[in-house]
Amino acid sequence: LRSSRAPSSALTFVIVGGGIAGVTCAEQIASQFTSDEVYLLTASPLVKTVTNFKQVSKTLEEFDIEEQPSSVLEEKYPNLKVVQSAVKLLRAKEHLLQTENGQTFHYRKLCICSGARPKLLTQDNPHVLGIRDTDSAQEFQKRLSKAKRIVVIGNGGIALELVYEVEGCEVIWAIKDKAIGNTFFDAGAAQFLIPSLGADKKDRSLPCKRARYATDKTGAGHSGASGELGSALGPDWHEGIELRGAVQVWLWPAYVQLTNKKIYGCDFVVSATGVVPNTDPFLNGNNFKLAEDHGLRVDDHMRTSEQDVYAAGDVCTAGWEPSALWQQMRLWTQARQMGWYAARCMAADVQEEAIELDFCFELFSHITKFFNYKVVLLGKFNAQGLGQDHELLVRCTKGQEYVKVVLTGGRMVGAVLIGETDLEETFENLILNQMDLSRYGEELLNPNIDIEDYFD
Ligand code: FAD
Fold first, then answer.
1. What's the rounded mean pLDDT across residues 419-429?
2. How far apart are the first and last CA of the chain?
3. Are strands 80-84 and 37-42 parallel, antiparallel or unpaired?
4. Which residue's C-alpha comes closest to atom 36 of ligand 1?
5. Which fold has domain 372-454?
6. Of 3.40.50.2000, 3.50.50.60, 2.60.120.10, 3.30.1300.10, which CATH number belongs to 118-197+229-274?
7. Which residues line ligand 1 at a C-beta cut-off of 6 Å?
8. I need a surface site. Which of 211, 294, 437, 450 has the fewest CB within 10 A?
9. pTM, entire model
């Protein structure tokens, strides 16, 4: 085994994963500890970098994502080395890692950002696909071009985008909930969005402010060392990929039976039923506390239960007592925030400084796009964890906007804003300052009142 050991005077930081969490963490550490070595070990040949970062309001942020060759990072940070090889073993007590290409790395501080992979309905079935990375999206596109009918299973963001984007192919969408998109929406919002499914998509070029995903045009290799380890695609994963099926008579290669007893033949099944954190190579022989969703449990300093091992992004599960207005969701924004905060925690620990949980974990906030509508989600947007103890106010203009606020005890705790509502900043403030809004009642959503002026 070749060994990469840092001189004893220098700290060695090792970060695993070239997705948004790992790259953000590595960049932050490399820029702060310029005379120390920083290693980024990743299974995929391209790394994800955040560009055009914009803080839209106190907690809402927008940015673009670019897949770039690792040399771009190395040029920017001379003390950062990117090693393209998957980690196959971690011995946490000895502070060492081994990669598939036979290298051993000794670390003082390690941050695991290995992401998550699709939870597949059945494993090793050639007719069941999961979409995770550029490779699997291309495989999907190839299969779709010959398909007459596909079955999409799941009700989260990926399934929502898929059923909207696929054309020229019949889509059977199997969901177990009463309304579509229940990870993000309630039945009212779902109802608002449903007409878009059958609508003409000619307006697609409308400008839209949201994270845009761009793949490297150089054609640099795609597959990770072990095939399944690419970075999660994130927003706009279908951009530039024509999702159009073949219209011809076909003998079904696969059949699915739903719980309503109906059986459908299809060319293939897309399993979009959530993700499983990529923890496998790190667990054997170590003593990690795992959360119920199998993520590496981290405390409010992003520390796992193994000394000097931190974790961020999709691979980890927040194990701290969360703010009443925040919840973890395995999303792009949170991967960036966690990677950045984990780096700051690693630095604070090294420098023996105190650090407080970052403000971004105070309020859940997310900007995205569904069915070509801008979507902003704030706080307990679906009344998560509130039971019956809440009230909803809704304003809806068909084809234009859907505004929902969640109130409890007269205070706003969450909101869903679909369309160009321009309400995000005001609502964010009302949620953060927990002002008693009882006396405003339904006036709060009166379209004739300029709510921004009202609360100024
Ligand atoms: P990843 O981006 O998955 O990166 C993990 C990295 O770890 C990869 O580089 C991988 O190669 C590497 N790795 C894995 N195992 C090893 C190992 N053993 N050794 C070394 N390296 C390893 N989020 C949104 O906010 N909005 C969206 O619209 C959205 N759409 C999505 C659509 C799709 C199809 C998918 C799959 C996800 C989507 N997400 C979306 C989720 C978002 O992409 C993820 O939350 C985010 O990318 C997680 O970042 P990460 O850095 O934690 O992990």
1. 94
2. 64
3. parallel
4. 132
5. Enolase-like; domain 1 (3.30.390)
6. 3.50.50.60
7. 16-22, 41-44, 86-87, 113-115, 131-132, 157-158, 224, 229-235, 237, 278, 281, 313-314, 330-333, 335, 368
8. 450
9. 0.87
